[in-house]
Amino acid sequence: MRKTLIKWFVILFCAFVISTFIHEIGHGVSSYAVGEQISTGFNRVGDAYKNPHDPDFRKGLENFENPYDLGPAFTLIL
């Protein structure tokens, strides 16, 4: 029983990590398609050439909306 529980936990954890990665790839592909430069780190959503502690890190991205965002679509396909 314990081995089965551990096996299911590992499978679910791997599925969660892989689905999150594929979801983020969808965001990256759609941003690349519209020509928007973005950072690739999970905690660095802003200008790809600046650090998060810079005051203008998110400048220009406040009103950015991508009508063709593929993150949710990739998740649903998965």
Give a structural overview.
This protein has 2 helices and no strands. It has 78 residues and is mainly α. Helix 1 (2-33) packs across helix 2 (71-77). The longest helix has 32 residues, at 2-33. It is elongated.
What is the strand content?
under 5%
Instruction: Decide which structural class fits the backbone.
Output: mainly alpha
The backbone outline, from C-alpha atoms, is: elongated
Topology, number of strands = 0
Tell me, rounded to a whole number, the average pLDDT. Answer: 77
Low-confidence stretches: none
Task: Characterize the biggest β-sheet.
Answer: none
Task: Write out key terms for the chains shown.
78 residues, single chain, mainly alpha
Summarize the structure.
The chain has 2 helices and no strands.
Produce the secondary structure layout.
Layout: H1 2-33, H2 71-77
Helix pairs in contact: 1-2
